[in-house]
Amino acid sequence: MPLLSPTDDLHQILKATRGIAIKLCKGEAISVINLHGNQVVDAWAVNLTDASECSAMEHTRSINSNMFFDKGMTLVSNLRRPMLKLIEDSSPGRHDTLLCPCNGAIYKELGCTDYHRSCTDNFHEALAEQGIRCSYTPASLNLFMNVPVAEDGSVQRIPPRSKAGDSVTLLAEMDVLVVLSACPQDITPINGAGRQPSDIAWCIHPLPAQD
Ligand SMILES: [Zn+2]
């Protein structure tokens, strides 16, 4: 499956700090392109016909027997059913599965006194635009997020290892809504040392034509 370059006409832009829910049918794939190389993208999958089935990071770590998410691994639901498979990855990999999506409480802890956009709000707003309400916030798959784990179990939050143009491609194993959030974090260096959230691009690879 050829990857589209960031300059390809078929790609679409998700603006920095924003979220989107994208319908993906079984057999279709989506590429997420890190245009500037340093942007973390929180990702979820929600069953298109039953929003009570969502991607579940605890089951994903269990099924893959790994705390990171690398090429060949499958994102599974709370029912342990395959939702998305990582089939291409031009980045150095090591996508985080451990840390929570940012929310208003985190930005308060970090000293924000005014409203600050968050991946949690992006998740719920993107689903609401599709007429779906989720009563809780599932843990996110944190694409490009660099969270090394030391032997004593401590974790670091450091800038992504990806470079501009790196991309991942996820194949739908069922009909899903893929929710993406271009993480608005601009206080810690998780989106790069410049602490500047940036746009990302995405595109859908359609189903192969049937004979
Ligand atoms: Zn975030």
For this entry, give a set of tags.
211 residues, four-stranded antiparallel sheet
How would you briefly describe this protein structure?
By secondary structure, the protein is an alpha+beta fold.
Low-confidence stretches: 1-7
Number of separate domains: 1
Distance between the first and last residues' Cα: 18 Å
Bound chemical compounds: zinc ion
Q: What is the beta-strand fraction?
A: 25-35%
Structural features, described:
- This protein has helices spanning 57-64, 104-109, 119-129; strands spanning 12-14, 19-24, 29-34, 41-47, 68-69, 74-76, 82-89, 95-96, 141-143, 166-172, 176-182, 200-205.
- The chain is an alpha+beta fold and 211 residues long.
- The chain has one domain (16-198).
- Strands 1-12-3-10-7-6 form a 6-stranded antiparallel β-sheet. A 4-stranded antiparallel β-sheet has the order 2-11-4-9, with helices on one face.
- The two termini are 18 Å apart.
- Mean pLDDT is 93; it is low at 1-7.
- Residues 42, 101-102, 118-119, 183-185 line the site of zinc ion.
How are the elements arranged and paired?
Elements: E1 12-14, E2 19-24, E3 29-34, E4 41-47, H1 57-64, E5 68-69, E6 74-76, E7 82-89, E8 95-96, H2 104-109, H3 119-129, E9 141-143, E10 166-172, E11 176-182, E12 200-205
Antiparallel strand pairs: 1-12, 2-11, 3-10, 3-12, 4-9, 4-11, 5-8, 6-7, 7-10
Bound molecules: zinc ion.
